[in-house]
Amino acid sequence: MIRHFLRDDDLTPTEQSEVLDLAAELKKDRFAKRPFEGPQSVAVIFEKPSLRTRISFEAGIAELGGHPVIIDAQTTHFGRGESIADAARVLSRYVRAVVIRSHADARVAELAAASSVPVVNALTDGFHPCQILADLLTVRERLGGTAGRTLTFVGDGANNMAHSYLVGGATAGMHVRIGSPEGFDPDPAVVARAAEIARATGGSVATLRDPAEAVAGADVVAADAWTSMGQEGDGKDRLTPFRPYQVNEDLMRGAAGDAIVLHCLPAHRGEEITDAVMDGPASAVFDEAENRLHAQKALLTWLVTA
Ligand code: CP
Ligand code: NVA
Asked: How far is the CA of 127 from the centre of ligand 2 (A)?
């Protein structure tokens, strides 16, 4: 059976842990796995901009012995209406796996349904599961493990990062709290799914309105852009409702003494996070960015050898 990774719950708790173990191994010994030796090619398609995802997949696939084919959708028929299912059938004839950054989750699901090679979600409107693998690796490194730890995300509770923290964090046995303003709550179906997973892993999920209450005693505090890719022109005022959710030194005083701060980047310094926190002792954001490479190499290796 072909395994895809479109949402965080496409890996069971045991499988997620295996991938993170492998990521730690590959971080120590960067060329230990060569699943794409040949080289076999991996397509990496972008329908939205990227820095980290693009470079970490490109470098990572090369380090796994493969050949990355980076595709900017605007320069292909992807960007001008070729059926996604037809494109999936064609790509499956050329490459060993397909990684895609896109808009609607349904579009990536359609691609996966027609693909005979693994498909990886490199960010959609709904989820950013590769980022959460990197974040969980960072939490393991900094705090010694994920189970039983409290992770609070403050900001846009309806965005891809919030949803992936809910589902991926619950899978890792974490207590996940989302602190968001009215009108920016997570999708109730995602909260329900995360709660179901948490019941099995010993974690929990909570959605809160008060940022200080959300952060109180948290081991991990995570921020993300207030305006996600694709929302720039929607006319919504985000600055006013999100300002109380800024991750600054004052908010961080309520977190656990040894709390760490995560941000998937790019950061809008002075908006969702201050310079003092980004560059301060609690910040793990650059380890987090590095860990994209190791986590994705582990994921790709796991998917093609599963
Ligand atoms: N965190 C992240 O996905 O960054 P990019 O948008 O630069 O890929
Ligand atoms: N929520 C952000 C994440 C960027 C990596 C976005 O979708 O733009």
From this structure: 9
